[in-house]
């Protein structure tokens, strides 16, 4: 089967170059030679539909590839597109060359997410040019083939643009619009179902989950070795304080929603009390980690500790999460808990 990879990263707003709040997220899915991109964020006041770009960071600024324009979906803005993994929108550039996603609003306000570097310098953005037309002109032997490919790509982009334009100007008063909304909801549900089936059917994923469970179950000595470093030798702090001091800080939720949050992995479960070590074999947790490559450890406003698994809110997923002890879902930022929202399934841990 084709190898399947998925990356999810947080989208932040910038004002006059200063990094501000978390306003949404971006998801990049890679399967075989195809690449699917989705960006979702809270709606902002703007005259025109915001343009979404992939970007590569350079010393003097960013080089961009346009993905498309955002359209309204409820109280959020959404952008979806699909392209070739190693020839992004006909530019000859690979998704592996890109550093993140950039959304242009106005000169002093923009949005950015990065999956390679924390550093971001906008500079004077320059857009990569499409190479398809140049290859067609310089290589007469493949001109006919390129013509066909260009026409197919143009038709595909045209259909996508028509869909985007239709969504940008909704007419909720007509029966046709109501039917369209119903069809979109059905399509979103089918997409979520298809993604779940893909994950279950992907043999490479199944092997990796088994390997992760095998590694985590090797024994107490291996798990204890994770915590040998300072500050875990400090007996004046409880286990939660030690974890919050030792791992990378994250800010997925509103500032007043929690007291602290850090990024962890399954191998770090050894830093929890021994009664929680069984989580290293929790299938739901391992499944979420495989898909998003991280977990979170949270201190709530109730001063209790929680472990969180990244995922998408869905009724079917809710039942699955509850079966494995993750009974609550927290959305990132200020997003509402609706189908398709990204966030974390959380489980309360033992008291310190």
Structure characterization notes:
The structure is a single chain. The chain is an alpha+beta fold and 352 residues long. It has helices at residues 132-138, 143-168, 175-201, 203-216, 220-225, 239-246, 283-292, 315-323; strands at 4-15, 18-31, 34-42, 51-58, 61-69, 71-73, 76-84, 100-106, 109-114, 126-127, 258-264, 295-300, 305-312, 328-331, 342-348. α1 packs antiparallel against α2. The longest helix has 27 residues, at 175-201. It is globular. Mean pLDDT is 76; it is low at 132-138, 140-144, 164-174, 194-206 and 215-230.
Which terms summarize this structure?
alpha+beta; 2 domains; ten-stranded mixed beta sheet; five-stranded antiparallel beta sheet; 30% helix
Sheet having the most strands: 10 strands, mixed
CATH architecture of the largest domain: Sandwich
Q: In the CATH scheme, what's the topology name of the largest domain?
A: Immunoglobulin-like
Question: From the helix content, strand content and strand pairing, which structural class follows?
Answer: alpha+beta
The span between the termini is 45 Å
Unreliable segments of 5+ consecutive residues: 132-138, 140-144, 164-174, 194-206, 215-230
Strand content: 25-35%
